[in-house]
Design brief:
Elements: H1 4-19, E1 37-38, H2 45-67, H3 79-85, H4 87-97, E2 110-111, E3 126-129, E4 133-143, E5 146-155, E6 161-166, H5 173-177, H6 189-195, E7 198-203, E8 210-212, E9 223-225, H7 226-236, H8 241-260, E10 267-272, H9 274-285, E11 291-295, H10 316-319, H11 322-328, E12 332-337, E13 344-346, E14 354-356, H12 364-374, E15 391-396, H13 416-424, E16 440-441, H14 448-477, H15 479-482, H16 487-506, E17 519-525, E18 529-539, E19 542-551, E20 560-566, H17 573-577, H18 588-594, E21 598-602, H19 610-619, H20 627-642, E22 647-657, H21 659-666, E23 674-680, H22 686-691, H23 718-725, E24 730-735, H24 743-760, E25 767-772, H25 782-790
Parallel strand pairs: 1-17, 6-7, 6-10, 10-11, 11-12, 20-21, 20-22, 22-23, 23-24, 24-25
Antiparallel strand pairs: 2-4, 3-4, 3-16, 4-5, 5-7, 8-9, 12-15, 13-14, 17-18, 18-19, 19-21
Length: about 800
Amino acid sequence: MRCPALLSLLCVALWSSWLIPCPGQDAKPGEPLPGTKPLTMEGDIAAQMVAGIDKFLLREIDLSVERRAKHWNRDFSSPEAYNKSIEPNRQRLAKILGVVDERVKFDAPELIATVARRVSEGPPGLVGKGENYEIFAVRWPAVRDVHGEGLLLVPKGDKVADIIAIPDADQTPEQICGLAEGVPPESQFARRLAENGCRVLVPTLISREMAKRAPPGQPGRANLTNREYLYRPAFELGRHLIGYEVQKVLAGVDWYAKDAGEKDAKIGVIGYGEGGMIALYAKALDVRIGAGCVSGHVAPREGIWNEPIDRNVFGLLDQFGDGEITGLAAKGQLIIDVCDCPAVGLPSEGGAPSRLTRSDGHRGKEEVDRMLKLFRELVPPEHRGIERGYVLVLSMPDEGEPANLREVLMKVFCGDDALQSFLRGLVPPITLERFAGEPKTFGDKIDAVARQQRQIAEIDRDTQQLLAESPYVRQKFMQKLTDCKNAEEYSKAVEEYREFFATQVIGRFDNPLLEPNPRSRKSYDTEKWVGYEVVLDVFPDVFAYGILCLPKDLKPGEKRPVVVCQHGLEGRPQDTIGEQGSQYYSGFAGKLADRGFVTFAPQNIYIGKDNFRTLQRKANPLGKTLFSIMVPQHQQICNWLKSQPFVDGDRIAFYGLSYGGKSAMRIPPLVKDYCLSICSADFNDWVDKNASTRALYSYVWTGEYEIFEFDLGSTFNYAEMAALIAPRPFMVERGHFDGVGVDERVAAEYAKVQRIYNVQLGMPDRCRIEYFVGPHKINGVGTFAFLHEHLKWPAPSKVE
């Protein structure tokens, strides 16, 4: 028998539930969402977010110094044991420097004849003569079709040692040989070594000369140094300008070693400024180099983010400072000449701003002191605790011989005292002789500008060759995944790739997420939804911020799907809800809330121009990226959303435009709470877009100097990133007139994704692309339908 009273009460309860407003609908402006604390932050919250992340990254850089120890297992019991114990670190350094290619074998450098030479002035290639040596213009192969080019100084009498002398990037070989003005005689170290019986090879480095770059036939755009121009595509393809220049030096070492035959090769490298950096890396990587001299370079590298960007080495500070690298170079003898370094100041005109002051070189003593603590076992007790001095000699002794540490006061770079110590590392009894007369020039003056252009063109052609080959490299890399025959095999195999992507490409901080400590305030009230600003803690000094939009017809106890709507470069959450009327976003977060979805529009960190771009500069040396911060921010956002009573945690989608589209390719692979991802106005042949020096849309020509990701060309293009999202639904939104790319390349890359869903997963309905006649914007037609379909939320019968 039914109870009329009970039935009446039940009807009243059901009817009342339809009248109860959505959470916080009746809240006054500024009041918090139920279950959160009041949000009291004022001013530009986005700028405060960037500043907090900056503080976090600087702290992580400082902590990296002590954390490096976990990567080393040094065995000081013997020279052999020591070198064996550091070999994994040496291999890691070679990898991140891009020294990964086999060098070309050759018998001797090629002599380069200058134009209009008179036969009476000597053999082809002769460009100068000193009192007891001759100077030749030469080139030699390094990797593939990339050559070293410079000068070779050949003594007339017996040779005492083979040296590679490397000038700074803004010096020419002729200047350190005395054939051109610009370097004082006492610092013409290539000339001084030749005067003392050394055969000296002097390579040309890529200069820091600036020019506005553009594809053929186009006006100049970003103002970049020659070094940054070549760094950009090389970095994307797993190479590095530093690596190319180290390879040229090591090719010279190959020749010297081959030429010595059965004799004991006495090979040394010496360099100043950028040349000192190349000399240090070369000696660290090649144990055949018996002595090294690094002048005007060694210093604490924790400020590398402020140095020229062509020094940006991904993951360097994770294992290496200059002190650790000297430990790799300890076989034989290493001299650290602490003196003025070259002064460099580069503007922010599309390229990365940077600064080096001459006094930075004197900070080398700080790194020397730290190095002494690292390598106490290599330094005898009587030499420990030295408090002053400008030249340090660190050597790993041969069996039974004492270690050697000396200091000499230096007043110029690569001066006689440094050269004396350097040569005695190869020829112990040698005494540096006095200055001889200045060398004389023969034949036409060498065209250093044309030589520089040849060097630039060779590396440019090589990176473009690597770019053309990169799809095959990625295909091999992804083989385990492409071999999967069904969805079950695929789901198991993809985890290994996700882990690689997280740790080796994006970079993962080990810091645990803080409690979210949500703070909010009601800031928006429209006809169909209310909006709250929300702030969540992530890491110390790092927080997430965004706008939560709640439909007004949300019923108590109802759990709805959520669409996380991500803005693009220099954007704000307010753009996505339509507050600021951005033509690109079409107010898509607000429109989706109109349709009944809960939406959350996060503030991402790519805002503030150089303020945020330097975050990438600070993250990269740690082996991290901007997305190393954004991924945990989004994980915290998802964690908090899933805890809300009005959210269905299994139906949280990601939809991003432009830089938000970049996020759509990188964040959902690692935040599995996102049940689908939509990439709008960004999907591309991404590697080509970053590395091409031909395409109009390439980032080589633009001011986005933070955009490049190390070795992406060998691992994850956008098809491979989409493979990490699969089998979750994935969609691309593409306007025909969107200048971020061209339809043909977008279609070709997307075809690879569609094949994964069609063939390997048997889920063709989960992958889609919509082309529309329009520019770089949210179209919101096929994508909205995709969201309704896969989030299982009914589409409105009539769209306003």
